[in-house]
């Protein structure tokens, strides 16, 4: 074996050393930026948080608007948010619907249309939804109202975040 193949010149040694140190320093500078970009994905989602809505005894078979207050943490800021939830009983099941129209985000009301008193109505664009939140064909909304995840604990209804209906 030749000695030339196994020996590293001074120039090669310095090149390898500087490349290694430069790579280490580059990685040390890039890693915090990568962590910053990926961190929100790794955080536990707040969608699983359930918030108290009302007592089960307050519900009827006709949708009623209930105020929902919850806190949202965004970085270092904690904000108190208020939403409205349309809730009613369908047999033994609690149905909780978002009041946000899926067409352009307007607010819907139950019984707001004189011609269709048993439906949700968006007065801005004349969108209509059935009592279960499904959109009425031929009206602007192309998908149903979003539905809240619900839980009943000790006679109290808790809701999560609204999810699109299938």
TrEMBL record:
* Keyword Transmembrane helix listed: yes
> Which PROSITE patterns does the record match to this protein?
RIESKE, TAT
Q: Which InterPro entries match?
A: Rieske_2Fe-2S, Rieske_2Fe-2S_sf, Rieske_Fe-S_prot, TAT_signal
Q: Where is the Rieske domain?
A: 63-159
Keywords of this entry: 2Fe-2S, Disulfide bond, Iron, Iron-sulfur, Membrane, Metal-binding, Oxidoreductase, Transmembrane, Transmembrane helix
> What domain of life?
Bacteria
Q: Name one GO molecular function term.
A: oxidoreductase activity
* Bilayer-crossing regions: 12-34
* Enzyme Commission number(s) of this protein: 1.10.2.-
- EC class (word): oxidoreductase
Gene3D superfamilies, from UniProt? Rieske [2Fe-2S] iron-sulphur domain
Q: Name one Pfam family in it.
A: Rieske
User: What PANTHER family does the database record attribute to this sequence?
Assistant: CYTOCHROME B-C1 COMPLEX SUBUNIT RIESKE, MITOCHONDRIAL
This protein is called what?
A: Menaquinol-cytochrome c reductase iron-sulfur subunit
